[in-house]
Design a protein that fits this description.
This protein is α+β, with helices and mostly antiparallel strands. It has a single domain, classed as Cytochrome p450 (Orthogonal Bundle), CATH 1.10.630. The chain binds protoporphyrin IX containing FE (HEM).
Length: 464
Amino acid sequence: MSSDSDGPTDAGQSADGEAPLVPYPPNVGHPSLHVLRQMRDPLAFSEELFATRDVARFYLAGMGDIYAVAHPDFLKRVLLTERDRFRKTDDFRIAFGEGLLTVEGEEWRNQRDVLQPLFTRDAVTGYADGMVEQIRRRSDRWHDGQRFDLQAELTDMTLDVLFATVLGRELALDGDESIREAAEHLHDWFLPTSYFLPNWMPSPARRRFGSAKETLEAEAQRLLEEKAGDAPTDPGEAEDLLSLLVGLREAGVTDTGMLTDERLRDQMVTIIFAGHDTTTTSLTFAFWALANHPEAREKFHAEVDALDGPPTMADVDELTYTDKLLTETLRLFPPVYSLPREAAEDVTFDGYRVPGGERLMLPLRIVQRDPRFFEDPETFRPERWSKQFRQELHDFAYAPFGGGPRICIGRQFALLEAKLALATIGREYDLYWLGENDADGEPPVSPEMTTRMEPGQEFLVSER
Ligand code: HEM
């Protein structure tokens, strides 16, 4: 990757006559100003980057040149067909150590093989009752006329679910504040104020990140010790991640280095980071969409009201409108709005070159709002997701969970949790939006590592 001192490169053609470098788009101003535009409004900036081409380059002082490609064909090449020519960037590994999100090659294959059985569509059905229990435990306390920051409430709820199901430990409803705060501060590594600094440079946000990670590692260590001697040594019998990992270690099944205390802690912190905020964001935007689209709300209510009682696993396949609603929410508001990679060698897109070693972004939000693939792309329209539309859509035009072998391991878990939460809450409450949309009718968002709603946006609870 270019270092800070390189400065923006304007050379269009390299000396040996290879394909020209991906150009800086002329409509986004001088490269020295890109960082300001990116910090001021990253979503608008990224839309402008792709106004005329599917490839773009921008310059962020502190990080250097960043390349970005926004076409489903390019996503498919990077994530699937030519994936060996790309790798993950260093920053996640520096932040989270050697968990599934960050490792590469054989180490990744090993970890994925060990963890995958816990996250298959069948396996996650075993979590459904536990999910509903946690969702109800919190939402049963809501009452008519209450106003709250829904995103903050759902952050607590998804953390309750993740801990109770995957980590085998129920969090206190009004307690365990240090864990909740620490989980929140894991994002501080990626705040714009820190993200553009060299990795070695301390900052207040990085210090908060460091202490959050220590808190969660200590909790992970405590859970590992508590579970020791009490986990099934047959991985098929493990009911959660904690017992799987501890059981494998005790059975001496694998010794790839993955089962040292340090690696196990990395894995658990990775799952806490990857496994709750993304689902929170999806649910928050889904409730925003319901509050802002009365026809969608009516159809959704008709579906969830037709259930015999509070939703269970047996109802999930019947929730076809809820499924479309969630799919459309993840299209318009993908929680991970851009996937980071690095080119391992020179690669050409559309006749333009991304040099080896350079950072490459895959802006999912741009691709999922591309009018070449989605009619009237800015409009929230769950009905577009007919069976035929799904079959005919380019397989990488919709990729909120990424794609190829490194597709999100938690997607079945997340989809199940989100559907159960929508249906459980939707049967009991209407949530009215008290925030203000922008001129385009979009909610206020703050894109960091995930695209969250701006904090403090209130909803009003109305019992149904
Ligand atoms: C709506 C919710 C979710 C969204 C939108 C989401 C999105 C993603 C995306 C886009 C990736 C690919 C990253 C890349 O290729 O660079 C990913 C990977 C991953 N996700 Fe999720 N995720 C969600 C929920 C979850 C949950 C619930 C868990 C765990 C319980 C989880 C754990 C992971 C892990 C461990 C990886 C790395 C997989 C690998 O590299 O093999 N995610 N997720």
